[in-house]
């Protein structure tokens, strides 16, 4: 219990530090977000309206940075993330609610599938080393070194441009009304296939390499030799003894990747103009949209912290040694 309380206290302090940095960092970006909003309005705002915008967004000179910081905490505790400059007057929570499902569906699904497939292939490659399974290593080493966005650009050139089979941008076809019907779901799946395959190929290769290396290390342990001496089958030794222990280091990495699902694969979403959180963050930085930047970073930070806390709890279940205190 004391271990769990220490971990919760650590994550609570980390959340406070991250939220504080989240407040001050966007304000260090040069430029005036209200002026960007005025430029989109083509200068059709009066002086009083401009001053009202500064007051509305808490950017007026009469309010100090410290008072803005405490006001920001008050808004967070009340569940208010503010109004977006880019999508004014829409609240930040509405903008995130519209884009978050796209990222969760694309990056979440591909992350889980890549982990499962990569881990399984890594177990096989590590256990049956010196056989045909070693053919996986040159391929996975090459693919893991390819950046997401570069592979995405190649995929667009080969399969989307010049009448290709896949669309090169967007989340669904123009003219399709979003809803839970076959037309929209089919269109959304069609648009997500190319970026999903791009993410799957590169991320799965990393899981194969890490799991194979851990299997090679675990295979030399004494308890593996004892398991063989007991006459257990190769499959049982591989799965119940070697793979279970080799999987432990990958749990933290997988938990971190689950937390980063919310952030999405930023460059992939930009390359494919996919309407996810990563693409919204890119647009918000360009527009100096403080509230939207803060809201997206807050969601990413909390998701990473929760995922790591879950990883600690999973460690307690998988490794009995972590349950010993003192």
Number of strands: 0
Largest sheet: none
Q: What is the CA-atom radius of gyration, in angstroms? A: 24 Å
The CATH class name of the domain at 104-276 reads Mainly Alpha
Strand content: under 5%
Query: How do the helices and strands follow one another from N- to C-terminus?
Result: HHHHHHHHHHHHHH
> Into which percent range does the helicity of residues fall?
over 70%
**Globular, elongated, flat, extended or rod-shaped: what is the shape?**
globular
The appropriate CATH architecture of the domain at 104-276 is: Orthogonal Bundle
Family: Belongs to the binding-protein-dependent transport system permease family.
Organism: Actinophytocola xinjiangensis
Transmembrane segments: 7-25, 102-128, 135-160, 188-209, 246-272, 292-318
Membrane topology: Multi-pass membrane protein
Description:
The chain is mainly alpha-helical. It has a domain at 104-276: MetI-like fold. The protein is 71% helix and 0% strand. It has helices spanning 2-27, 33-40, 47-56, 65-77, 92-127, 136-144, 148-159, 182-218, 222-229, 234-246, 248-259, 266-271, 277-287, 290-318. Helix 7 (148-159) packs across helix 8 (182-218) and helix 13 packs antiparallel against helix 14. The mean pLDDT is 77.
How would you summarize what this structure contains?
The chain has 326 residues and is mostly helical.
Question: Which terms summarize this structure?
Answer:
MetI-like fold; mainly alpha; transport; Peptide ABC transporter permease; MetI-like_sf; 326 residues; MetI-like
């Amino acid at each position: 219990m004391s271990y769990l309380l220490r971990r919760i206290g650590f994550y609570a302090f980390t959340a406070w530090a991250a939220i504080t940095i989240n407040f001050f960092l966007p304000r260090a970006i040069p430029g005036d977000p209200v002026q960007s909003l005025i430029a989109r309005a083509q200068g059709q705002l009066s002086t009083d309206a401009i001053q009202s915008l500064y007051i509305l967004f808490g950017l007026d000179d009469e309010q100090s940075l410290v008072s803005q910081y405490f006001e920001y905490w008050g808004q967070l505790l009340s569940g208010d993330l503010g109004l977006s400059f880019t999508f004014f007057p829409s609240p930040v929570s509405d903008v995130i609610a519209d884009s978050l499902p796209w990222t969760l569906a694309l990056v979440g699904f591909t992350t889980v599938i890549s982990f499962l497939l990569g881990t399984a292939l890594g177990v096989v490659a590590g256990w049956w080393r010196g056989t045909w399974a070693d053919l996986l290593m040159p391929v996975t080493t090459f693919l893991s070194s390819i950046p997401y966005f570069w592979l995405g650009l190649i995929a667009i050139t080969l399969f989307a441009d010049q009448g290709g089979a896949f669309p090169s941008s967007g989340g669904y076809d123009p003219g399709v009304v979003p809803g839970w019907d076959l037309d929209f779901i089919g269109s959304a799946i069609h648009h997500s296939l190319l970026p999903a395959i791009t993410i799957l190929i590169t991320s799965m290769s990393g899981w194969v390499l890490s799991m194979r290396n851990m299997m090679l290390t675990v295979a030399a342990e004494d308890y593996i030799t004892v398991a063989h001496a007991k006459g257990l089958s190769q499959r049982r030794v591989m799965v119940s003894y070697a793979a279970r222990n080799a999987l432990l280091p990958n749990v933290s990495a997988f938990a971190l990747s689950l937390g980063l699902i919310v952030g999405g694969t930023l460059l992939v979403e930009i390359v494919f103009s996919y309407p996810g959180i990563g693409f919204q963050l890119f647009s918000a930085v360009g527009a100096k949209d403080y509230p939207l930047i803060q809201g997206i970073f807050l969601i990413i930070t909390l998701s990473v912290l929760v995922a790591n806390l879950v990883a600690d709890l999973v460690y307690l279940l998988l490794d009995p040694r972590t349950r010993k205190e003192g």
